[in-house]
Design a protein that fits this description.
mainly beta, 8-stranded antiparallel β-sheet, 6-stranded antiparallel β-sheet, 4 helices
Length: about 240
């Protein structure tokens, strides 16, 4: 499921190259939206983005936007980044994809504001996970290991251009960087949403009434709050965070 991308920051640790010089630099104040601590799905502190526009103590030398509007942050090598390249005397880049549901669609906090670091590690704002709705104990942002603890190994795994989907009886779980990105529940089975108690066998109007007054809807989605939304298909309901 494609998610709304409010900003992006690409994802490798490499030496600064001519690629950066071909991009448009922007003010480091673009970092304001992601200031603070960022934790992985296990609750480990991974990034601290400070008010002085440094990350984990590394000074930001430049901030670039590429043709896909993905900011690239280049740092003076020091601390953890320094030791990976040249003992503290080089320059590196850190790449992140930042995802958040637009505030124009909801008034509640976005529990699923995420940074995908180096295309491999999903980071969230809080040490403990936050979510509103869930399906059989599975919530958006849950680590794949915790899904296995609940339901065991999937009956099959599909890899569609890097989008990993695990199939279980009556529902699918899609992952991005090892955390749950999307849950699909199908009609004619007993999978239910934990808060509402509704299933894919319920009509769309049932969902509108149950979540009435929470957020509203767009032409395609029912926004249920906290960065979560539902979309309806003929044979299933898709629960995710994106647009």
């Amino acid at each position: 499921m494609k998610k709304f991308l409010s900003a992006a920051i690409v994802a490798l640790v490499v030496a600064v190259s001519a690629q950066c010089s071909a991009m448009n630099s922007v003010s480091v104040t673009e970092l304001n939206r992601i200031l603070g601590n960022w934790y992985d799905a296990k609750g480990n502190l991974v990034l601290t983005i400070s008010n002085d526009y440094s990350i984990n103590g590394c000074k930001v030398l430049a901030l670039y936007l590429n043709n896909d509007y993905k900011p690239i942050f280049a740092y003076q090598s020091s601390a953890v980044y320094t030791r990976r390249i040249n003992d503290g005397h080089g320059i590196k880049e850190i790449h992140m994809d930042y995802h958040s549901m637009p505030t124009i669609y909801q008034s509640t906090p976005d529990y699923h504001e995420m940074i995908f670091l180096n295309g491999k590690t999903a980071l969230r704002r809080t040490k403990e996970p936050r979510y509103f709705e869930s399906v059989g104990g599975i919530y958006l942002g849950m680590h794949k290991d915790d899904v296995v603890k609940l339901y065991g190994q999937p009956s099959s795994v599909n890899n569609n251009m890097g989008h990993i989907t695990w199939k279980y009886r009556g529902f699918d779980v899609q992952f991005a960087a090892d955390v749950v990105d999307c849950i699909t529940i199908y009609k004619n089975n007993d999978r239910r949403f934990d808060w509402s108690g509704l299933s894919a066998n319920n009509a769309k109007d049932d969902f509108k009434r149950k979540y009435s007054g929470r957020e509203g809807q767009t032409s395609r989605r029912l926004i249920i709050g906290y960065g979560e939304s539902l979309s309806f298909r003929q044979d299933c309901i898709i629960f995710d965070t994106g647009f």
